[in-house]
Amino acid sequence: MTEQSAIAAPYSEAEQVGPLVRRVLARNPSPFTYTGTQTYLVGSGCDVAVIDPGPDEAEHIDAILAAIGDARVSAIMCTHTHRDHSPAAAPLAVRTGAPIVGCAPLTLEDDGPRADAAFDAHYRPDRILTDGETVSGDGWTLLAVATPGHTSNHLCYALPETGALFTGDHVMGWSTSVVAPPDGDMSDYMESLAALYRREQDTVYYPAHGPAVEKPRQLVRGMIGHRRQREKQILRQIEAGRHRIDEMIPHMYKGVDERLWPAAGRSVHAHLIDLERREIVVHTDDAWSLHI
């Protein structure tokens, strides 16, 4: 796990992290969530939006409400529905009367070995946003940017007034995202990264986990390069006679916490599915070979 000293972890306290943006950190740290889920409050006037309310934990929900104070909540917005992001939306809606707005519901069963991988089957939005749709309030606007890949329903939210982009789990400053089939899709993920790279207007990213990204396009370019290098690494593993994912992982992830190997295996699987679509590899039973 990356050293947590890279970002302060004052749980249950609202911090001003940028113009119009405050952060409240949930106490759910893990190898997959870094110091925890970061809930963002957008707005400094009579109303606010809440982005990624996080896990349904009383301490965190109380901290969000304390930070909101007397302001009206115009929208509770989720980037996607993994259970470290959206479960607090429903109780927060009950306590504030605010609508749940944002990503579509997704109840795909996911029994994979990831702490954040289970989907929130109880998520029920009042309004689903599609790419380019907006929610606005007193001095702020949030624009939906469709970024499928980490999950099929993932959205980022742009704040045009400041140049900020709330990136959920699509882009994080401390780690790359896990892309886990069957819902996670590497082809979509790469296309979404390319779409963000084209957005020159975004000057800072606020991810759900980890520090703000001050040079976003530089990071995204590096992430695209990293994924292309991972592809080449997988192909070298096949050329070396390792045709199963469980044979590849120990060689590809030497020095990485072995608790993360199952999740890494799912991202490798996503790469292999993408390579198969492009007719670079073929799949027979559990074995992968180069396309002839």
UniProtKB/TrEMBL annotation:
Residues of the Metallo-beta-lactamase domain: 36-209
Entry-linked InterPro entries: LACTB2_WH (IPR041516), Metallo-B-lactamas (IPR001279), RibonucZ/Hydroxyglut_hydro (IPR036866), Sec-metab_biosynth-thioest (IPR050662), WH-like_DNA-bd_sf (IPR036388)
Pfam families: Lactamase_B (PF00753), WHD_BLACT (PF17778)
Segment forming the signal sequence: none
PANTHER family in alphabetical order: ENDORIBONUCLEASE LACTB2
Name assigned to this protein: Beta-lactamase-like protein
Species annotation: Novosphingobium pentaromativorans US6-1
